[in-house]
Design a protein that fits this description.
The protein is mainly α. It is about 65% helix and about 5% strand. It has a three-stranded antiparallel sheet with strand order 1-2-3, with no helix packed on it.
């Protein structure tokens, strides 16, 4: 064999070796690229989860702080409202009891009987003079307060004339 032929064979062998090595390098490169991509994606997901957890914790702390601040503000307002309502209820109850002595009452205070619920008074107009002229149901309201549902029902029954007299006789053996 001639030197040229040997050189051609060596070149062909070198080319084959280079092609084989290039294929191996390409395969290794793809494998390394796949591994690098997998590692990067794993790192990226961990970072994402960490940032998300941190942001969630920050949001929770901020929400808890806002809730505490709101509670303090709301508690002051709730207490103020409770005091105002309590005062209104107390004024209303006192007003109910002194109503027969107010000039606007319009009936003899001695004719009025306090019931409290569902109406405040039943007035037996003329009772003190020994001559009852009428029986009047009176509900006392202070300020802008309105009748509740039960008071409206009593009012409507009276206005519709759904009022009657009943007499209950207790057996004499129970009366002694």
């Amino acid at each position: 064999m001639e030197t040229n032929e040997v050189l051609v064979l060596l070149l062909i062998a070198a080319a084959v070796i280079i092609i084989v090595l290039k294929n191996r390098v390409d395969r290794l490169s793809r494998d390394m690229h796949g591994q690098a991509t997998a590692l990067f994606n794993t790192w990226k997901q961990r970072e994402y989860d960490t940032v998300r957890r941190e942001q969630s914790e920050v949001a929770r702390r901020e929400a808890a702080s806002e809730l505490r601040r709101w509670r303090l503000d709301a508690e002051k307002e709730i207490r103020r409202d409770a005091v105002t309502r309590s005062q209104a209820v107390t004024v209303g109850k006192v007003t109910e009891h002194i109503a027969p002595y107010l000039p606007e009452f319009g009936f003899n205070p001695k004719d009025a009987r306090f019931i409290g619920s569902p109406v405040d008074f039943v007035v037996f107009d003329g009772l003190n003079d020994q001559a009852v002229v009428q029986v009047v149901f009176v509900e006392v309201k202070a300020g802008s307060s309105a009748l509740n549902a039960r008071e409206r029902q009593v009012r409507d029954a009276v206005k519709a004339g759904r009022v009657r007299w009943e007499e209950l006789r207790v057996p004499s053996e129970l009366a002694t």
